[in-house]
Amino acid sequence: MDSLIESYKNLTDKENEYNIEFVENKNTLIFKFKTQNSEQIGYKVILTDIHPQGIFRYESDNKTFLRILSIDNGHRFIKEKFRNGFRVSNTTNVIDIGLPKIVDLEKTDKVIRDLKSVLEKPVTESDEIQIVEPK
After folding, report:
1. Backbone angles phi, psi at 87, to 5 degrees
2. Residue 63 in 3-state DSSP?
3. Chain center to CA of 86
C-alpha cells in the first residue's frame, strides 16, 4: 500500500497535485487530484469494487488519463468535485484521473502495477480446495 501511495504522489508536477489516502477500517482508497485552476476532484473507492483487469492508461482528445473500472460496471465509486467552496458528489462506474501534459510512462505504469498488486488477494490455506472422503 505504501508503494502505491508514493507512486501516485510522484505523478505531481508544477500544474497538478496528486494525493491518495487509505482508510484501513473501511478498506477504501481516496484518490485526490487538484489542477492548476484550483479544481479539486476526489474519488472514493472500496478495493473490492475495482475490476482487477480494469486499470489502464487511456487517451482521449490529446489528454491521457488513468482509468479504473468497477467490478460489474455498476456505479460503485463516489466522485466528488470541489468548486467555489461547494462539494458536488455523484456515483460513477469509471474513474478517469487526468495525468500531466507531459506523461511519464514509467511513473504511470508503476501506479498501475502498484494498484494491481494491492488488489491481488494472497492465497491462504483456507482458500485451498479441500477434498474430504466420505466415511
Report:
1. -105, 125
2. strand
3. 23
DSSP 135: -
CB atoms within 10 A of CB 65: 18
**For 2-57, how does the pLDDT look when each residue is reduced to its tens digit (9 = 90+)?**
899 999 999 988 888 999 999 999 999 999 988 877 678 999 999 999 998 999 99
Write out pLDDT tens, residues 84-111.
Answer: 778 899 999 999 998 888 888 899 999 9
- Are the C-beta atoms of 65 and 24 separated by less than 8 Å? no
- 73 vs 51, 57, 68, CA distance in Å? 9, 18, 11
User: What stretch of H or E contains 79?
Assistant: strand 77-83
